[in-house]
UniProtKB/TrEMBL annotation:
It comes from Paenibacillus dendrobii. Residues 12-45 are annotated as: Disordered. Belongs to the bacterial solute-binding protein 8 family. Gene3D superfamilies: Nitrogenase molybdenum iron protein domain (3.40.50.1980). InterPro entries: ABC_Transporter_SBP, ABC_transptr_periplasmic_BD. This is ABC transporter substrate-binding protein. Residues 69-325 form the Fe/B12 periplasmic-binding domain. GO terms for biological process: cellular response to iron ion.
Amino acid sequence: MILLATTVACGNESSTTETPVKETTAEAATTDTKADAKTESNTTDSAAVQVDETKAAELQAQFQGQPSKVVVASVAIAEILNELDVTPVGVPTSTIALPEKFKDIQPIGSALKPDVEQVTKLQPDVVLGPESIKDSLEKQFKPASLKTAYVPSDSLEELKLSTVVLGRVFNQEQKANEFIASMEQQEKDAVSQAQGKTAPKVMLLFGSAESFMMMNENTFAGSIAKKLGASNVVTDVLKSEETYLPLNMENVVTANPDVILLVSHGDPEAAIQKFEADVKKNGAWEKLNAFKNKRVQALDYNLFGVASIVKASDAYKEMLGLLYP
């Protein structure tokens, strides 16, 4: 199954059921310089958001000046451009609604399989895509000699970083900082409501009735749950560093999550019923906390199906209610 978002969720925006593909994967800082840079902030603006400046500089270096014509191959990134008052000349086709202002802009096909001929006709200064599918997109754009740039957009923290970077690229730093400051205040309010409460162990699933994958905290839903204090069983119990981990019933029993939340791009009720039926085939299912306490639920696909910084406030509200009912 291919994650519509990126990863959501996470991943891309066309509905299919193969391997999940995130829209972005954060690059880990591997040197002392990168680690130190995480505490730096953009000193040109006193209200600037603190980001990993080494990573930000690497991303910004992809651009040669300020592009005037941009094609965007991601709904998550299109939403950021909209907040920065940047209008692209081409946008992806998606089941997820694009900003209203972009409704009449030339579609370029799906994020995974854009219409390269159409993109070329638009003569963009740069094609802006999600970092996690860079290799796939480069194979399509490079033969057409199209200038490309890629930013991370899978987890909420990655979306914040990309908003800051694109604000600098398009000379809209104030808009970027004001938008993130507003979002972070809403985030702070949500986090404060979770403080002092017992943090649950959560298992986050992505899929349909046909198949499921477990998601760690580097996905959109995972990053929201982590910020609210929940323990993600993929990271904390199963000790896996994989962003997406194939589901097996042994892992469900071993992890024994307090809450199981599913992001389904199909019928969520059918997906939950199928998951519950699979778990019940295991003799230990009645001992699982999430099942004993009836805490196996579906997340709103419109909020969690694709990573979205503009929907973060609503995503926090829904996740808060499910983790701390």
